[in-house]
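In full, the data.
>
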Amino acid sequence: MTSQNETPTGDRTSAPKVGRLRRMFGNILAPGAEPANEHDRRDHWRLAHGLLPFVWPEDRPDLRRRVVLAAIILVIAKIITVLVPVFFKEATDLLTEQSTSQGAAIAAGVAMWASAMVVAYGIGRIAMAVLTQVRDVLFTAVGQHAVRTLNNRTFRHLHRLSLRFHLERKTGGVSRVIERATRAIELIMRMGVLNLLPTLLEFVLIAFVLLYFFNWVYLVIVASMIGFYMWFTLSATEWRITIRREMNDSDTEANTKAIDSLLNYETVKYFGNEEMEQRRFDHSMARYEKAAIQTYYSLGVLNAGQAVIFTAGLTICMVLAAYGVTTGAHTIGDFVMINALMIQLYMPLNFMGFVYREIRQGLVDVETMFKLLEEPEEISDRPDAKPLQVSAGRIEFRNVNFHYDAERPILKDLSFEVPEGGMLAIVGPSGAGKSTISRILFRFYEISDGAVLIDGQDIRDVTQKSLRAAIGMVPQDTVLFNDTIRYNIRYGRPDATDAEIEEAARLAQIDTFIRQLPKGYDTAVGERGLKLSGGEKQRVAIARTILKSPPILMLDEATSALDSQTEKDIQDSLDAVAKNRTTLVIAHRLSTIVHADRILVLEQGVLVEQGTHAELVERDGLYASLWNKQQEAEEARAKLARTLEEAERLGAIRPDGS
């Protein structure tokens, strides 16, 4: 029997009752396998049923016509497939008759018909191959459309899921799930529609041939052989899928670790942990290796068992046919036909087990994608949500309470207002809840109590798209797309012209730097923008927000990655951009917000102070304490810089030149 190739697919599955197989073959292949329950099997049938609309897409009549034409062709192909052994039988009988016939004329006539049957046999085999290929070509568009539709649906859904989901999910694992599911969808469509149904049709046609040329005894033998063959194949396949689960889990784990490690390449190098990363990756690959070996061992058992069952049925039928020839009940052609019919039956029968296994494993792969599609949207627009209408840009937090975990509140009864065109700064120690405010304003999370309003409109009553279109964000940690500088700036407004992009870059104090690069605005920034310095990435982010030109600005420690001189230059640009715009600033460096209209001081999610910079310094509270510490740190850095300059100057005039 030909070995059946396999690829590592799937993420989650289960195995049904396999006690009898385990008693037959022991526990050498899957010692830790657990039988699955009927609920898992029903889930897979539900998944298969969920894919049916993609076989018959309502919005694509051209694809439906392809499905109908492919179905007609496969029926014709199967009828020809069953007739080929009949042509072989007739040719054999005619040749046998010719060898015993008397008279040249009779012999010539028999030879002519025998030749015609041989030609029909050859044409039949050619037609089988050609029609199969035509059928596959016709159905390719249907399968690819299904892949595209499901991938697009999953991609859109992933973007609709909450920030909480993406913070908890490993990107490498998600990408692997989608990659495997993409392959599985096409496989299921192709195997299920183009192979499973035609094979069942071929079994029915063979049954009629057996009854017509032989008798019910042959049909019972063949049916029993098929039944036992399928029971063994399906049961062993379910058993093997348990091993498959371990292999797929380790594959996903290894891929996740590899991507995570490569994305953090610099961190790995900083700490010299290349060997540790290699060990972590190798540990997952060792699991994969073990499971893969078990998979191929179990494949050997499956192939051997199938060969024994099929050969037993074939041998019994041929013995009966040989006996029939000796008694005159059958001809030599019948003996040849039963052999050809059984050998021809072997291909779809063997393929039936392969199809079942591939479909089951494909459903395992698709199951995880469907689970992603079923993942609830934590934040969704209300049915009556309307676009946000921004007239003044006034922001109000009214008695807002928020927590990521119910046992750990983040914001506690927080209330404040940012007037039209005003600048409000929020400061406080780490963990005070400053950045959480920006996430709430963008509605990445739903507050547990209170209300957030823009121009009197509760942000829960407006569409998320219009809300986020009205707010420009310059985050503390800027991550850029692995594309050009031009693309990353244009991301703020995709329909912007090159001139507008360059003007935004000029306002962000980065135009001169870009023009000095060999490829200028077409320079690639690398993975996550790692080819640029922290300050350069930050200025690209500022340019992107300037290009967006929103009525509301959110600056989350926007100059934290810049040196003092660059910070001052960009701060001037930000002040110009923020003019006549409502601006909310989350700041770590207090020197950047001394000119804010109002400053809020948070501590452990509670508003403890508010006022102007001068008022808060005079009050000598938490803000004054933070200010004094930063001033002392700045003075210490300045003193150290002067000391180093003096030491360098003195060192430069030493006689020994040291």
Summary: The chain is about 65% helix and 10% strand. Residues 205 and 567 are 81 Å apart (CA to CA). Residues 1-39, 653-658 have pLDDT under 50 and may be disordered.
